[in-house]
Every structure is written in C-alpha cells, then in structure tokens.
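Hi everyone, sorry if this is the wrong subforum. Our group has a chain we'd like a structural model of before ordering constructs, and none of us has done structure prediction before. Sequence below.
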Amino acid sequence: MSIKRRILTAFATCIVAGLAHAQNGPPPAPVEVAEARLTVLSPRLELPGTVISRNDARLAAEVPGRLSWIAEVGTLVKEGQTVAKIEDSYLRFQKAEFEGLIARDRSKRDFLDREVRRLRTLEEENVAAKNLLDQTESDLAAATSELVVGEARLNQIEVQLAKTHIVAPFPGIVTERMLSPGEHATPGDAVVRLIQSDSLEVVARAPLASLGYVTEGDELEVKGDRSRGAATIRTIVPFGDGRSHLFEIRATVPSSPWRVGESVRLAVPSAEPIEVVAVPRDALVLRREGTSVFRVGDDGTAERVTVTTGLGAGGMIQLTSGVDAGDVVVIRGAERLRSGQKVAVVGGSSTTPASAISAGN
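Answer:
Right subforum, don't worry. Here is the predicted structure as tokens:
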C-alpha cells in the first residue's frame, strides 16, 4: 500500500471512529472494494517447467596436455576470453623446429631458382648441357613442394598452439570445473562448464490438445516460488514424446528475476476463452469451513457469502456461485470483518457504485 493510501485510510478511520463515538456505536471498518464483473478468461493448465540457458556448454580440450590453469567457478568471462590453459612447451619446440626447417627449405628453393635461371641463360648460348638444366628444374620443384609441406605443418602446429587456450564461445559465467590444474586432458575431455545467464527460456511439456491454443510469439504467464512474470513462446517442438505424448514448448523469459535451473509453472490455455463473473483474487477469504467473500450492500453492511471458484488468470478469478456481476466485494480489510458489520469504503475502485462508497457514513 502506498504512503498516500495509508494516510487516506488512517484519516478515514479517524473520521468514522469519531462519528461512531458521537453516536455511541461501533465504528465502521475501513475497507477497499471492487466490483464483480463479466470478464473473458481462458481455461488454463499450469505445466511444470524449468528455466534453462539457451547457451550452456561444456568446453572440452582439443589438444592433449597438462592443464596449467583453469578459471575459478563464478568467473564472468567475455566472448573469446580464455577459461583454461594447456601446457604448450612441446608444441612451441615443434614450432621452432619447423620454422628452422622452413628457413632451410626456403633457402634451398631460392638457390635452385637462381640456378635454373642461370642454366637457362647458358643453354641459350649452347654452353650448358640440357640434362643438367632438367635435373636442376626437378630439384627446384621438389624443394618447392617440401617448402609447401613444411609451411602446412607449421600452420598445423600454430593451430594446435592456439587450441591450448580454451576460450569462451559466448559471454557467460563459469559454473563448474570438470578437471583441475595439473591433470592431463585428452581431446574431447570436458574441462569447464560455461552458462550464459542473460539468455534464458522456460522449457515445459504440454499435451497435444493444448497446442491448438498457442502459437509462436504468444505471451504466457510464468510463476515461480518467489516471483511471477511473462514468457514469450519462442518455438513449439513439433515432435512429441512417444511414451508421454507431450510436446515441448520453449518460451523466452528475461534474465531477471529468473535463474537457471529454477522450477516454474507455465500457464498454457487448454480451451477457448469464455466470459465469466470474476473478482480480484484478494477478495477471497480462505478458511477451514470454505471459501467466501464479503459483499457490501447499499446500506454499507458487509455480508459474508460462500462462493465457488473456477478459472483463474492473473489477478482475477472466476466465481461460479454466490456473487453476481455488479456486486461490490471487499478486497482489503476483510481479515477481521464479521457478517452484518458496517464498513467505510476507502480507496474504492472506479467501478464501485457511489451508493456503496458512501454507505458507511
């Protein structure tokens, strides 16, 4: 309740208390009310679901070696940032070896290239033998091929060296270490688990009958133990489970207040919308003897009425008996009311009749 509403409530309480004291009667109880009205609600199923991240990866080693460093659990990383490092001394030695071989092969190729040009000049002057030129050209082709092979092997070593750094393919948080620094990793061994916490969705499974009432882009209500909100259907997987005959719904949710792994309930329509008499959920008084509401008469008297509830959607709930459209019910202050007690309406809704608002005076 806002500060302004609290002040108005206290002020109204003081006024009605003063009037009652002057008339030697009990003061009317200050309450807030709303009008029962015809509302279109959809029958819904609340399906169990789980909040997951669309990007949840177990990052694996691609080259063998001893792990020299792994990011701590809870570390926030950016895309492309290193999350684990494999010892690379052997690969660096191999790289140095191939760089030396390539330098040798390049020098040999350059020498043979100059020699071929010289012999061709001499051949034109009928000085050099034709078979010597042919042999030199063959040696040049072999040296060129050896240089290409050496450069390809050096590129492979450089790729392997780059893979000694296991990097994040997306921004996220390190949630688990599968291996520890000092352990040996082989290609394919999972090292860390990385989850993107700002790309979330709810996964739920719905019966085939419900899929006719939802489409991609629809907004559904999602509720958890500590919060509720809206989820937008991203996709409906068109293939059902052969045993449960349930189909998967994936709905996008914002990163706040939801958390990966949280259990939620997704409200999915199960039939066509219908028009019903509905009141705010706050009007319900739940006691051992049953569910009831306090209906306010034109004379300002609160009457306790036993009701039967039906469909619910958001903050509204259907009443199938006990209350008609247009009836005024108490939504705040019903905790200590007694049937037949006078009330003074404070902060009534715009749909509340003026007679009911003034009835407590």
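For your construct planning: The helical segments are 3-22, 89-124, 130-163, 208-211, 354-358. The longest helix spans residues 89-124.
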